[in-house]
Amino acid sequence: xxxxxxxxxxxxxxxxxxxxxxxxxxxxxxxxxxxxxxxxxxxxxxxxxxxxxxxxxxxxxxxxxxxxxxxxxxxxxxxxxxxxxxxxxxxxxxxxxxxxxxxxxxxxxxxxxxxxxxxxxxxxxxxxxxxxxxxxxxxxxxxxxxxxxxxxxxxxxxxxxxxxxxxxxxxxxxxxxxxxxxxxxxxxxxxxxxxxxxxxxxxxxxxxxxxxxxxxxxxxxxxxxxxxxxxxxxxxxxxxxxxxxxxxxxxxxxxxxxxx
Amino acid sequence: xxxxxxxxxxxxxxxxxxxxxxxxxxxxxxxxxxxxxxxxxxxxxxxxxxxxxxxxxxxxxxxxxxxxxxxxxxxxxxxxxxxxxxxxxxxxxxxxxxxxxxxxxxxxxxxxxxxxxxxxxxxxxxxxxxxxxxxxxxxxxxxxxxxxxxxxxxxxxxxxxxxxxxxxxxxxxxxxxxxxxxxxxxxxxxxxxxxxxxxxxxxxxxxxxxxxxxxxxxxxxxxxxxxxxxxxx
Lengths: 260, 233
Hints:
The complex is a heterodimer.
Chain A: H1 2-45, H2 55-78, H3 84-110, H4 123-127, H5 148-156, H6 159-186, H7 191-217, H8 223-226
Chain B: H1 7-15, H2 24-77, E1 85-86, E2 126-127, H3 134-142, E3 146-150, H4 156-165, E4 171-175, E5 183-187, E6 190-194, H5 200-209
């Protein structure tokens, strides 16, 4: 009798206990599985590359356009120049900035973003807290870039006149380029983007020094030094010195821009 | 399987005494009570089990709903681009549109053309007030440019909107006589016709196809070409 009771006592409760525990375990496993799965999903499919409106994407697009004009200007002057130093500089700028432009375009594609920007040029610079104190000549797409009239003047010029015009336009181009690259660094870009932006700051700054020296050798001044806009028929407002990122250099006349 | 009769053992347990069976009358009562408790316990056991299953099912339905919503929301954010006509599929080795360099004017099938043979010099990107030579413009398409064209005489508001769109790189804007729609956007192998300059599909078309996957020559420039017709006569 007691044995029977024990037997029934044991099997029946165990059956229901097992059922309840089993379901509980199954539920717990399912919930944990869901949580883990969601985490894995975020990891695998979540966006960890710069977004369409990020500083990195804005920098890549804008600097890409900026570089494209520097390459165009350099290729233009290469066809007419007779000066070795200008030929060397133009070759250098064309190949370097052409390569860098390709790098930046590659980033945009790898990030899965359209080449076309979502808003206006330099929108991303507002993000980094940079005020738009950069000089932009009327009709130019972006700060530092030449407008169509200036580009046409460069195409039409030859020999020494073309060399001087090229150097003047390129100095202005570089000054803005340095500011844009610095804005990207300040804006917190990372990895390869940061490396290239920092390299642009350094490289273009020393090229500005080089070009100022080349102009001086020719007895000419940069646009920033003279306050005049070159390659245009009419002068719009004169360029202001304080806008220029390359502070002291603009006023030096002792040729102290060493290391070429 | 018939449930085992537990009344006796339960009664013994609930009795809590080492004692044997309670007197018959009270035992029957207790048995009945215990049976009721057991029934409630097991059915509540059943209920808590089903509650868990229902909860699981609800969670799954919730997840399915979220996923569906995300997918549909993504579709809705892109304006209906079904109106884009495709003349050359991506990854299509048959190359329906020719790409030879020729020094003469070319007769194209589409107006404006979406690709085909063209002049060795591309048309510099920008805004043109007069119709442009197609044999140069098609080369610009090959470089990834978007060619916006309009029927001469469209409203000034529409034209302003088009000028705004064309102020970016790799954009061409020109009037085109005899095209089917008031405003058309063309990329290599792709074309869209719209009525108004502020049609949001224009911007989406540009985002999709400017220097996009259809570009036969990626990396090529849209400057350094020509701004005038180089084919004589």
